[in-house]
Design a protein that fits this description.
Elements: H1 2-16, H2 22-42, E1 45-47, E2 52-54, E3 57-58, E4 67-69, E5 74-76, E6 79-80, E7 83-84, E8 109-110, E9 113-115, E10 119-121, E11 126-127, E12 132-133, E13 137-139, E14 144-145, E15 153-157, E16 160-165, H3 166-179
Parallel strand pairs: 1-4, 2-5, 3-6, 4-9, 5-10, 6-11, 9-12, 10-13, 11-14, 13-15
Antiparallel strand pairs: 7-8, 15-16
Length: 184
């Protein structure tokens, strides 16, 4: 709550002074980031140091969804879906109350999503319940990750599949950077 108040005060100050103090923009960004991380932690996420979440959605349910996200990760526009309510359509024993809009009316399947260290997950990707993503992984934009991903790979697609080893990916970008540094 304190970080949120500081963030809002700095944001208003930056508007008033029209961003004329460069270091104040950095402080605004820092407190904005802290607010985002605090919101996700409140939703059941454990988030490692130096991890960046940009426009991400972490599912929530009345029984609580859990997420473990490692250090030095970047998730952009990702949906982490740690529960699945679809079985309630077919298994009457999962229905607790007649009306679905009432709290705790349905028992959803839920399982923690675990993401290792040094993971990048591209825009509009979805990670399904119980998936474990290894460390040193790149997941391409728009992927649907429904199975565990091992360490040191690049995956993409629907469903997500291994495209190449991470070392090949790194080497490709190293060559691009050497040939075209203006693109970075």
């Amino acid at each position: 709550m304190k970080s949120r108040l500081i963030y809002l005060a700095i944001k208003v100050l930056n508007i008033i002074i029209r961003g004329s103090i460069p270091w104040l923009k950095d402080i605004e960004a820092e407190y904005g980031y802290k607010c985002i991380i605090a919101k996700h932690k409140k939703s059941g996420a454990s988030i490692g140091d130096n991890t960046l979440l940009i426009n991400c959605t972490l599912s929530s349910s009345s029984k609580g969804d859990k997420f473990i996200i490692g250090r030095n990760c970047t998730l952009t526009g990702v949906t982490l879906l740690a529960h699945d309510a679809s079985p309630t359509l077919f298994l009457p024993e999962l229905i607790n109350r007649e009306f679905s809009y009432l709290p705790k009316s349905r028992n959803s399947y839920r399982k923690t999503i675990k993401i290792g260290d040094n993971v990048f997950i591209g825009w509009n990707s979805i990670v399904l319940p119980g998936v474990k993503v290894g460390s040193n992984v790149v997941i391409g934009a728009g992927s649907v990750v429904c199975k565990d991903i091992p360490d040191n790979v690049v995956v993409a697609g629907n469903p997500a599949k291994i495209i190449k080893p991470l070392d090949d990916y790194i080497e490709n970008y190293r060559r691009l950077y050497e040939r075209h540094p203006e693109r970075f």
